[in-house]
Amino acid sequence: MRYLCLVCFDGKQINTMPPAEWERLVRESAEYDRELQRLGHYVHAEALQSPDTATTVRMRNGKMSATDGPFAELKEQVAGFILIEAADLNEAMRIGANIPLARIGSVEVRPVMEF
After folding, report:
1. CATH 3.40.50.300 fits 2-111, yes or no
2. Which of 17, 75, 82, 109 has the highest CB neighbour number within 10 Å of its CB?
């Protein structure tokens, strides 16, 4: 079954982190993606640009409106995702917990709806 791991963290924390520590987390994240690929769990992953580059769109009564920025003001914002294959939720949670950025933020693990 496929699971989406939404990687979230507080961008302000990154700004106060020593550059070497951030670079280490980025390197470990890439290494973890390769390990997931080797183990057959990796489907796809992407990092997102900062929340200030977001645009939120809504469709109401046939008209679109757009607002700069993310939909909600949250302490932690979605920073990226990893789409994985896992046997069950327990395995998906284990995979999500080992994402290096989970050490400074959180990872929401959610099953993908199958149609």
Report:
1. no
2. 82
Residue 11 has pLDDT above 90, yes or no: no
Domain boundaries of the chain, sorted by first residue: 2-111
Strand ranges in 10-97 using DSSP code E only, listed in sequence order? 42-47, 55-60, 63-68, 77-85
Neighbours of 106 (CB within 10 A): 16
Q: Which of 12, 17, 31 is nearest to 79 (CA)?
A: 12
Rg over CA atoms, the chain: 16
- Cβ neighbours for 45, distance < 8 A, ≥ 6 positions apart: 33, 80, 81, 82, 83
Q: What is the pLDDT of residues 66-89, one digit of tens each?
A: 988 766 556 778 899 999 999 999
Six-digit token pair at 115? Answer: 């149609």
